[in-house]
Amino acid sequence: MKVKKPLASRRGIYLLPNLLTTAGLFAGFYAVVASMQGHFENAAIAIFIAMIMDGLDGRMARMTNTQSDFGAEYDSMADMVSFGIAPSLVVYNWALTDIGKFGWLAAFVYVIGAALRLARFNTQVGTADKRYFQGLASPSAAAVLAGLVWLGVEYQWDAKPWGVYVGILTLITGLLMVSNFRYSSFKEVDWKGKIPFIGVLIIVLVFIFIAMDPPSVLFGGFALYALSGPVMTLWRIKDIKEERRQRKRTEPVDSHEEDSDKAAEDNKESNNSKP
Fold first, then answer.
1. pTM as predicted
2. Is 262 a domain residue?
């Protein structure tokens, strides 16, 4: 006779956050398929939908206390598809197919940049300063390319003659992800706290501007955010160096160095005690 295991001891995965992650993964996959069929506007919109799902799954997991190692790994895999492979293939099919080797190399640099960015983020979760991102976050980089494609389709641009410039932008965006530039993470904002009434009006105005011309506003906003990293880093380079110096001063001394210093002090005391 088989004994049923208690419900608490059964293995499984949390449904709601992983369902949102799956939705984001589906949106990224759909973006690739839509770009192969020439539906570039749908492809760009799908990438933005994947961004929304990516923002919701982590918050939902924290709100419902359903965080898990599986969810974190699954989220990284989905991000690689939605914000690494999908944007590069969408922009490649849109503008880079006719410029030869440079086109697919620029797209590949973006893919490898997204992969390295996600790997570095996963290894620095517990040690990095939460106020900043080191390098451009992959969703923001994907939004720059998706916004450009959406903008081009909206205004009926012929992207083929501008393929070299689109390839350069793709290359730069990929390199920004693996750079050491600092980007604000907005995690210091107290989203649960109270704000002045004027703040609500500003938020409403932002939504109105996005609704008036989504591709222009989204591309412009994320392009400015991508430029903010180099500008903010160069502007505060002295403060950053001072922070690094203070961090080195506060770091614990290596145990081998402590042992050697202690031995040197003991030898010095023993020599002084000799007649």
1. 0.80
2. no
